[in-house]
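User: Hey, my collaborator sent me this sequence without any context and asked if I could get a structure. I don't really work with proteins. Can you help?
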Amino acid sequence: MSTRRGSRAALLVVLLSLVGSLLVGCSGDGDESLLGDGGTTGSVSPDEAQKLLDRRAHAVRAGDLEEFLATLDPTNPQLLTRQRRYFANMQALPLEAFRYRVLKAEWPAQLRAPGWGKDVSLPQVRVATQLDGFDEVPVRRITGFAFARKNGKPVILSELTGTKKQFPGSSPAPWDLVRIRVQSDGDTLQIYDAGTWAKAGEIGSVVRRGVANVQEALPFSWDGKVVVYVFSRKAVLNSFEGVPGGNITHLGAMTFPMYADLGQPTVAGVRFTLLPSSIRAGQPFLDRITRHELTHVAVGERDDGAPVWFAEGLAEYMGARSISKRSRRIATVAVTRARDGVAGLPASKGFNGDDQAWNYALSWMACDYIAATQGESKLWELMEAFHRSGQGTPDDMADSVLLRVIGIDGTDLANRAAKRILRIYG
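Assistant: No problem. I've predicted the 3D structure and written it out in structure-token form, which is a compact way to encode the shape of the chain:
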């Protein structure tokens, strides 16, 4: 399952545009004008808030818990508990960049807690985080902090809204929400929670094996770099936006780009998440779906604009490629639907709807048929033709590409794929 740019960019559409930063120099990213003239907002000025967040960022990068806690309201035990967890999470990550920028804009009064009082300031804040070796540029998101004075000194009163929620549109990362555990082998960065950490050894082996399998099959070079989320906590699972089909419980995994700025085209890195149903399913499904998602990661932009049936069918083909033919399985519904006859290949719109099991099966068998009758190289040639140098190929133009590359149209390919299902699995 892949959440891709273009037709799948809905995952990351939000209301805010963001600005990034670098690891060193906590106030020099070209946005000095955002701080205004240093006048006060409530009782803590933007300049004071920026200096406090600079201390916070430096403490995270330096691993200085005492200095980090010194930026917080010492009378709020819940805040201190959450922030100790956050600090521990950040220490577990390979950070190349981590910094904040206070903006002129304030969050609306509705996001304040009545008990904070009128002198509390609530500015919007940009946070930039870059994972060393995995993100090409910082990932920048907008959040907020409540600032107040305690014993005359500025402190952070809360990193949440007055109702203890994340700030709107902040698109929180898992390390903002739960305690994480991290495992890395240099090429892959695997991030778990307490409920999945016991599976880290097994999943680490699955991912390494999957990377090797996919690299062996690709006609181009891929470095195997990927960030893998493996979470069971609802706080994380419910934070994913724009889930294909609208219901994450129907998915086994999902690949998605991390945009440097939400709503903008620059991709900082790629993540994929293995969801609880895949972990429960065990082998051989776990290996298979991991190869599927790793194919999406490896292919990256190369299939942008291709019909969804092809992008998903190719990933399904790659997922099953390393399994002996007699051990491959297909959804039960595929045999029934194949017997009923087909009118064509699945449409991109609604691909992950109620018929997704059938859509994936037919798409897989379409790609499997091409590879079996014309060679795997035709799949990669077809991918390039569908991509058309980034311009893409709408569904209604796919037949012309199919005829040119493999000599048959979509209806013919769909019928041959259905016959292949019946011949192998019927």
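In plain terms: The two ends are 25 Å apart (CA to CA). You can pass these tokens on to your collaborator as they are.
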